[in-house]
Amino acid sequence: MTDEHPAPRIFRDRFDAGRALVPLLGDYAGREDAIVLGLPRGGVPIAHAIARSLGLPLDVLIVRKLGAPGQPELAIGAIAAGIVVHNPEVARWFGSDPRQFDAAIARERAELERRERLYRGGLPPLAVAGKLVLVVDDGAATGASMRAAVAALRALRAAEVVVVLPTASVEACAALRREADRVLCLQTPPRFEAVGEWYQRFEQTTDRQVTDLLHGARGGAAPRAHC
Predict the structure, then answer these.
(1) Is the separation of the CB atoms in 170 and 190 below 8 Å?
(2) How far apart are CA 203 and CA 212, in angstroms?
(3) CA torsion 24→25→27→30, rounded to 10°?
(4) Residue 9 in contact with residue 109, Cβ under 8 Å?
(5) For labeling, which of 99, 108, 139, 144 is most exposed (least CB within 10 Å)?
(6) Could you tell me which residues come within 8 angstroms of residue 77 by beta carbon, excluding any fewer than 6 positions away?
(7) CA–CA separation, 157 and 154 (whole Å)
(8) Which residues contact 169 (CB under 8 A, 6 or more apart)?
């Protein structure tokens, strides 16, 4: 098994990417000690496809990127479950100062708490302590969001953290291998500019879609009210 794919592919959509990852994950199928966590919003359709194929419980781990000034899609850090990960190289390159970083943390923490209430709608989070966790996103350019997720799962005492990605930069995978127990990435194209370039359809996943997928997988009705 390898983390690199000789011919990078373009996925039809996120569900297609999830199905493409399943053959890498056969060792985890049906394990009572394993769960799948998707990073909202884009990682949830992929995580849903994986959890359904492997017969594993699905939940979300909410991570918020801290965007570079003027380029909000480029992460200078990320937060998850009280954990802040800073990407100092990118921050220096784009001139972010501590005040900007602190303001971004406050802003994204509020959004993280809003989404936690919205997506769960009363559902309790799955227990992480002592579990093998497959943590899934739709790709990684800098890896900041996934690094925050891994740090949060360590703090929550996960027994093993396996990062699962359909596509990522070589640099992001290298950074994640230093922090996760295992990184399973279907492809690491040598020229990687943005996650969306590896999908035919990469429209934004909505809050409604995340809520429906999560509640459907957990066997509950999705809440009607969305804010």
Answers:
(1) yes
(2) 17
(3) -150
(4) no
(5) 99
(6) 65, 66, 84, 85, 86, 87, 91, 101, 104, 105, 144, 148
(7) 5
(8) 140, 141, 142, 143, 188, 189, 192
- DSSP for 27-57 reads GGTT-TTEEEEE-TTTHHHHHHHHHHHHT--
Q: Taking the mean position of all CA atoms in its chain, how far away is CA 20? A: 17
Asked if the peptide bond before residue 109 counts as cis, ω within 30 degrees of 0, the response is no
Tell me the C-alpha distance between 202 and 155, whole Å.
32
Domain ranges of the chain: 14-62+129-217
The gap between the terminal CA atoms of the chain, to the nearest Å, is 43
Residue with tokens 């909505």: 206
Instruction: Please give the C-alpha separations between residue 38 and each of 18, 53, 92, 139, in angstroms, as whole numbers.
Output: 11, 15, 30, 12
**pLDDT tens-place string over residues 141-152:** 988 889 889 988
Mean pLDDT of 84-101: 65
Burial class of residue 196 (count of CB atoms within 10 Å of its CB; 0-12, 13-18, 19+): middle
Return the CATH number of the domain spanning residue range 14-62+129-217. Answer: 3.40.50.2020
pLDDT one-digit tens code per residue, 54-91: 999 999 999 887 776 666 666 667 788 777 776 665 55
